[in-house]
Amino acid sequence: MSRWMARFAMGLCVGALTLASPAGAQAPQGTAPAAASPPGAPTHEQTQPLDVSVRVDPQQVRIGDPFTYHVVLTHPKDHRYELAVPKETGDFEFLDQTRQRQDGAESATTTFAVRMSAFALGTVQVPALAFDVATPEGPRQYSLPGRQIEVTSTLPPEAEGQGADLFDIQPPQEVPIRSWRLVLALLGALAAGLLAWALLRWWKNRPKHVYVPPPQPLDVRTRKALDTLKAENLPARGRVKDHYFRLSEIVRGYLGERYGFEALECTSSELMSSLRRLAPPNLPEDKLMRFVSESDMVKYARADASPESCRDALLFGYELVDKTYVPPQPIQAPDNAAAPRVQ
Q1: Tens of pLDDT along 126-168?
Q2: Alpha-carbon distance 131 to 109, whole Å?
Q3: 129-135 and 30-31: which strand pairing?
Q4: Which helix H or strand E contains 74, and what residues bound it?
Q5: Which residues touch 59 (CB under 8 Å, ≥6 apart)?
Q6: How far apart are CA 242 and CA 75, in angstroms?
């Protein structure tokens, strides 16, 4: 904060000197140095995006006020652009940045919004921005030259004619207090506010008796998940990989809860080994092995699957539940149990 206030005061002094100069004098133009790599940093090959769009908002800004530097880069989908935060920005101060990416059919668009503030009057140039680019061929770099922006003074145009002057920041001064009553009253009000806040927080967080219905049986929950996946019809929307990811989680979750082991955390070989050790009855092991292999090929090897294969894989999920789920048996009282006494 002290660095910012010092630079702000320096900018105000420069503004006053500019107003005091003869009419018609033009402020010197300044150019911020381009961002350079630190000594000893690894150098990468340069790359160029397919299209670049740059916009400064607003185009004219007062000294010390923030402005936004919009950069829109259109590049191949397998490239990823990340802004390298500049360490030396000259007469500019880097505030923050946001990044958004939108993928298209053939390319992707990455939009950066960089907030800065300037501390030099006149037409100045925004520092060059450096981007780290991740490509299938390895890391690359891209440097974007800065655009110009008009920086004006914070004093109004009529300040010179009215004799307005700038005053330096005054140091803190001691203020005598004649009585402690005001301090005690403020402390009492603060204590009352804290007490009221504590009571309100306790009231909101007090234990509440909420009825939690018992969970539905495993077969009902699994069939509902399969029905939801079927209704979404992901393969018809070109999302075959997502279809197999969801279906694999449903099947693994069912097997893990049905036979009591961490099926979601197992690899494919560990899953089949655990089921062979348990030897559950009626388990269609051959079909399950084909389903696991087909899922791994689609999810991790980028294999393609026909709509018929996606439909058969979903039907296997229903078949697995039908063949392996056994509803829990109700607890029956023994025949020799004493009947309740009626008085």
Answers
A1: 888 889 999 998 999 998 888 888 888 777 766 656 655 555 5
A2: 14
A3: unpaired
A4: strand 66-76
A5: 149, 150
A6: 25
